[in-house]
Design a protein that fits this description.
The chain contains six helices and six strands; from the N terminus they run βαβααβββααβα. It is 37% helix and 22% strand. A hairpin with a 2-residue loop joins β4 and β5. A three-stranded parallel sheet has the order 1-3-2. The chain has a three-stranded antiparallel sheet with strand order 4-5-6. The longest helix is centred in the C-terminal third of the chain and has 12 residues. With 134 residues, it is of the alpha/beta class. The relative contact order is 0.13.
Length: 134
Amino acid sequence: MPKPDLIFITGCNAAGKSSLIRTHLSLFSDFEIIMTDVYKGRSKEIFKDAVFGGKNIILETPFNNEGFKNQMIMKFEQDTLVEYKSNDFVFVQKFAEYSFYLERLTKKDFDTISTNKNYESEFVKNISHKTFKW
């Protein structure tokens, strides 16, 4: 029996965790998706059942640490990295390694995240320097 996958998606409130999952549901069709802010007190029981059932699991949970408030690390559009901010978090590079291993991240995006240097796609650069009138 192959080992099941366990993916943690965490971040501050309104960071886009649930949106990330919803927009990539086809990639996670064989996963038990546990959103702690939805299941609340039942999360532990549901997680335990999924673990003992040998299921692939995505655990999505918010954290409310002031150090993370309003901090964007990376942004994807249509499965392509468009913006990345260097940071001190090791889990970001681990995410990149795992995603690249599963062929869910391009070599270019993997290299960008692995080098941990600021990056903006040409599209983002062009948009951020224009003034829009409404």
